[in-house]
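Q: I'm teaching a short session on how sequence maps to structure, and I want students to see two examples side by side rather than one. Could you give me a first protein with its sequence written out and its structure tokens following it? Keep the formatting plain so it prints cleanly on a handout.
A: Of course. Example one:
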Amino acid sequence: MKFTDDQIADIGEEIISVLKTVYDPEIPVDIYELGLVYDVQISDDADVKIIMTLTTPNCPVAETLPQEVKDKVAEVENVKSVDLELTFEPSWNKDMMSEEAKFELGML
């Protein structure tokens, strides 16, 4: 089944809402506001590809965090499949955080 652009946009908004419920355990800010999600691609068939990073390659949740993201996004209505790619290029830095995240962490 092919989805319309509006439906894809709605699915995208749902995915972002879900991403905002996933937290880096060391920082009290969600992974979306932290800038750890580099890209969310959604095909016409609602196959989702997420490209994300971690704050450090040795992050204590390197095993569990990507799986949590994958599981939560897979539960979004109409999402057919989720492919998650973990990348460290470019490496994450605090400039990638949203204003909201910087404010939360007292950096503004």
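Q: Perfect. Now a second example for contrast.
A: Example two:
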Amino acid sequence: MARSDGAGNLCLEAAGVTTFILAGRYFEARAKRRAGAALRALLELGAKDVTVLLPDGGEETGDGRRHGRGDRGGRPHA
């Protein structure tokens, strides 16, 4: 067995770390794409029309995108 200065081991270790980092970035990007697609699918399933309870006990029906969950009083979101 011959002695060496260890440069080969260092190069192999650097390549392993680089591969690990690049693989992590790839899996992170893939997860973000899938999460975005899932959120878009949920938005498409969202309520189109809603009924909002008014302070006087009445109801107002309107566009589902105008009101948030738990919204009362018929005021539109900005």
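Q: What should students look for in example two?
A: Point them to this: The longest strand covers residues 49-53. Also worth mentioning: Residues 7-45 form the longest helix (39 residues).
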